Fold:
Amino acid sequence: MRIIDGKAVAAATREEIANEVAALRAKGLKNDIGLAVIFVGDNPASQVYVRNKIKACEEVGIKSYLCKLPEDSAFEDVAAAIKRLNEDGGVSGMILQLPIPKHLDENKLIDLISPDKDVDGCTASQKGLLWTGRDSLVACTPYGVMKLLDYYDIPLEGKNAVVIGRSNLVGKPMAQLLLDRNCTVTLCHSRTRNLADITRGADIVVVAIGKAKFLKADMVGEGATVIDVGMDRDENGKLCGDVDFADVADKCAYITPVPGGVGPMTVTMLLANTVQAYKSQNGII
Ligand code: NAP
Structure:
């Protein structure tokens, strides 16, 4: 069994990104390379995520902009901020930090983001490109999972991949990315029957459901690769994933831990997408 070291892969990938940003800056930039984070309200978990994103930008030389709006902002206020950032040449990419306050229409706001700045891959436009097999800005977490699989040379072609969880942000794009790499994909969710029978036959299992230690050893076949996207709390309030790591690990060829697996890759791929967006906006291949 090998533990997939997401921290190490993230560090190596961030170093590559920092070198690329430095090389682009050395050539002279017409527009800056920048990421804007729109943060509506004061969700405590989001505060930590936003801080991490801004710090990560600084570390690789990407300029960051925090657009902070009050909890009671009207739809028009958030829409105006998105439109302003769409027009700002120094902003290569932007993300709307989720969750947003309940009175705001999330999908409507997301679709105001200019698709070429949608570095979270969450607009209908970018999702449509992904779904139809064209180049796109891919949602950061599933993109990070693909990076991990490739870094460890885990074979995908013709393999049975099971994704548990069908969210727009993780499960659905994850399934599509594995399909694009010629896996035979089964996408499971809360209404799936006989889930364990399905997961036991999988070469690769990706779990993204938000239920602490849900995947147990009797749900996994010998030699499977298990990717844990979950970020949950166990009975003692300790960070854990959707996989019962202690129970499952011995059966696996590869497994990601929580923390230190998929998590560090998400922000890393946000940085990668920001550079990709900058390059495509400026005609750099
Ligand atoms: P979400 O939007 O809440 O979706 C959860 C999905 O899991 C739904 O499709 C749901 O099915 C399915 N599900 C729930 N219980 C299930 C069960 N017992 N059996 C099978 N399927 C079940 O969650 P999300 O945003 O995708 O996030 C999932 C987890 O990943 C969370 O722990 C989140 O914190 C974590 N996450 C981590 C990162 C990272 O960077 N590491 C990034 C994003 C998310 P239905 O559709 O039928 O309801």
In short: The pocket of NAP is lined by residues 141, 164-167, 169-171, 188-192, 208-211, 229-232, 262-263, 266 (CB under 6 Å). Residues 6-26 form the longest helix (21 residues). Residues 27-114 form a domain with the Rossmann fold fold (CATH 3.40.50.10860).
